[in-house]
Amino acid sequence: MDSKQETIERIIDRALAQRIMQALSVGGSENRAANASCVQAKTEVLQVPVGISNRHVHLSRTDMDTLFGPGSALRRKKAMKQPGQFAAEETVTLKGPKGALSKVRVLGPLRPETQVEISIADGFVLGIKPPLRMSGQLDDTPGVEIIGPQGSVKTTQGVIAAMRHIHMPVETAAQFGLRNGEVVDVEVGGERGGVLRQVVVRATGDSVTEMHVDVEEANAFSLQNDELVRICGY
Amino acid sequence: MDSKQETIERIIDRALAQRIMQALSVGGSENRAANASCVQAKTEVLQVPVGISNRHVHLSRTDMDTLFGPGSALRRKKAMKQPGQFAAEETVTLKGPKGALSKVRVLGPLRPETQVEISIADGFVLGIKPPLRMSGQLDDTPGVEIIGPQGSVKTTQGVIAAMRHIHMPVETAAQFGLRNGEVVDVEVGGERGGVLRQVVVRATGDSVTEMHVDVEEANAFSLQNDELVRICGY
What we know:
Strand content of chain A: 25-35%
Largest interface: A-B, 53 and 50 residues
Order of helices and strands of chain A: HHEEHEEEEHEEEEEHEEEHE
Oligomer: homodimer
Largest sheet of chain A: 9 strands, mixed
Number of strands of chain A: 15
Distance between the termini of chain A: 32 Å
């Protein structure tokens, strides 16, 4: 319910804004409103290219042995932007209580712990509700059956939906007054524009600046790979 | 599209609103950060329940005849929130150049034109890129093959991804100073919180207040059906 006070406030708001606009006589340029809060925050903002993560799996040495054979190695298919990371030729099938997802890409290199990153929609297909986590934070996460060409493994944990995050070198973070682990807002323009809040900064020495979102987040904002978004609101 | 002028206007709007708020000493401080811009704008905001739309089809009389038999009628499975709208028992298969989606729900009642609403991810499966449109705006949209139990039809247009929008009665719109067709920002709290911009207000006489988003938008913001979000930034 709008109170009289709020009605007055809004009328004042608009009238004042209009008057200032008239005074400024600013013509219609092509700038998009989606950038407003960034523009407010500072004149120069950190622009970050987007990297869209489809569902994928990181494997431990033990699970690699089970799924692809003892001593097997991941074959590099394509380098990822983050140094040393790559998409492997190997894929697996994920099987949950409700359904399965096939041809799920394995990412290399091997890790100390197996981790399965899926979207919320993937979770519906599998019948598993993935908690929102940063990579590596696997306590109290559900497991899933992983099926490879040489065997299968039923993990007891490791299924997550990745929290959106921004990789960047420590120097870039310092330059913009950001700290590792800090949570920022990211402004996206366009026909499905908006603001992503709760975006975690991951500032480490050898990182390449890139915001990771999953396919659903990308589609919800009509984001493409390598499209630039702006950090603001920190 | 917002012009630079409108951007400036909004910035001034918010700054002035804040100042007036301070002067009047209105406003609690317990609200979450995610609500900041709403709180800034006014003390009381319009809260709107979310309705999540999965892929669905609206059929014309002619296409209904082809797919389900001459003179066939949709059988009501479940009422939708908007008066007169319902999910039908009937489902169809969509077939595109790359793949197919089965068990796609038909929504009733029948419409003058067949319309197919899918997500961007659905578009990848079908091999069809759905343009972002408001319901009924079908010029220059792609077609798809629709397969029913009695026949199939190849439409030449009608495939869209729905623009997020808010249904509301005209009186509610008037109460909050909103106009039909106006574009607003919507603030969402929570672990995947943020702001959805470019949300279109659809104020018509018999509407029930509800924001429609697709499954990807819902999952990107961790939104559930009937969860409340806040209109702000208009």
